[in-house]
Specification:
alpha+beta; about 325 residues; signal; B30.2/SPRY_sf; 15 strands; nine-stranded mixed beta sheet
Length: about 325
């Protein structure tokens, strides 16, 4: 009996020792993890404080910016609207490659008051050397000393302008041309030059693009400068009966640079550029058609919205 009691006491002592030792180990492990957590928190505390301070500063800055923007928007309500800058292109169709500032495509008409021995359509945009439907009667100038066989444009071109327009030209030869028979002319000339002759190709103060028979070469387009000096020429067609030709010519008059460039619109090419164009006086566009007994010639003037595309890439 005494031995059994001693054994029980010994067993209880062993259990107590095991529980005490195990609890001590658990408490030690928990303390170790708590220490590690405190160490990590100490390491990141300063970084967290810095981030917090930075965010608070940015929020404050954004609030100040927002107040400033609201104040500026409110002040704009009381400011007069800004006037638009001068247009880069006036009246011309927009083009991505058009970098000619101040280019104009104004509405130009053929002036009936200047028409001489020729025929003009009712819209004042088409002229021919024969009377056709929907035309005015041929009109004679009041000043009989002015004998230009055609018509002037309705506006002169000043020495500060940059202007573009086009013409559709059609001619049909009904009788063989001889010698140097004229067919048509587009020119830019002073009033003085226009008053002197039936065409201005040989006049001073005139720059002429004219087509006439050139002996064995046929109808040839000539570019004549200020007194008849030929700068360029190219053959258009035969000069024999039955021949017909259609042209679409573009004209870029740059009085600032003192140049006049001429384009073949159908072929998308520049034909020729007049240089050193006198800038002292207004130049008037003039249109002449000739040889009514041998040819039928028709001019159509295209300006402003009539123009579908300006060949700025060729300028």
């Amino acid at each position: 009996m005494c031995g059994l009691r001693n054994s029980a006491i010994l067993f209880l002592l062993v259990l107590f020792h095991m529980n005490l030792y195990g609890d001590t180990q658990l408490i030690g492990e928990e303390k170790k993890y708590v220490f590690l957590e405190q160490a990590v928190l100490e390491r990141v505390r300063s970084t967290l404080l810095e981030i917090t301070n930075t965010l608070e500063a940015r929020v404050g800055s954004l609030e100040e910016d927002n107040k400033r923007i609201v104040s500026e928007l409110n002040s704009l309500k009381n400011v007069n609207p800004i006037k638009p800058a001068p247009e880069a292109v006036i009246g011309c169709p927009l083009s991505d490659n058009c970098a000619v500032f101040g280019l104009e495509c104004p509405r130009i008409f053929m002036d009936p008051a200047t028409l001489f021995t020729r025929f003009l359509s009712r819209d004042k945009l088409t002229m021919s050397n024969r009377q056709v439907d929907n035309t005015y009667e041929g009109q004679t100038r009041g000043d009989l000393n002015r004998v230009y066989e055609g018509v002037q444009g309705s506006i002169g071109i000043t020495n500060r302008q940059k202007m573009y327009f086009e013409t559709d030209i059609y001619y049909r030869i009904e009788k063989d041309l001889s010698a140097t028979n004229l067919v048509f002319e587009v020119a830019f000339a002073t009033e003085k030059a226009i008053a002197k002759s039936h065409y201005v190709g040989r006049q001073n103060e005139a720059w002429s693009i004219n087509a006439h028979n050139s002996f064995n070469q046929g109808v040839t387009l000539f570019f004549k400068s200020n007194g008849g000096s030929i700068g360029h020429s190219e053959i258009l067609s035969d000069a024999t009966s039955g021949t017909e030709r259609y042209l679409k010519l573009g004209f870029f008059i740059n009085r600032v640079d003192r140049t006049i460039a001429v384009f073949d619109i159908n072929m998308n090419r520049k034909i020729y550029t007049f240089t050193n164009v006198d800038g002292s006086q207004e130049l008037w566009p003039v249109f002449g058609v000739y040889q009514a007994t041998k040819t039928f010639v028709r001019f159509r003037l295209n300006t402003a919205s009539d123009i579908t595309s300006v060949p700025c890439g060729l300028f």
